[in-house]
Predict the structure.
Amino acid sequence: MTNMPASRTVGICDTQPMTIAGLQSLLKDSDDLQVVGTATNLFSGLELVRSHTPGVVLIDKAFGLPAVMDWLTNLRSSGTLSVVWGVSINEAEALRLMQAGAALGDITVSHPHLFFRKRRSEVLQKKS
């Protein structure tokens, strides 16, 4: 009998609907990650987390560092792991985001699957 990893629920909050569709397509065949909701703005993203309580939420850094920092502060007690991702995250931004409680993903737009391979074990280990 194989020991299958438990499924982890994922919320996606991104500025671009096309990126959301790409991430959903990438994750649809995953046995251990299931998208439970998406949002294209921070307010809807906060509502997504409050209503669906995903295990992890991906948030696009393109919303702007100050706005993302405020958003992370609002999510601290939710129990959801927040992963901030973008085309680039410099060291100063990374430090500020981690202090606010985020995990980070620095990826290129053309290779989002590398992000998930890199983060999959971290995401599954943090499952409650």
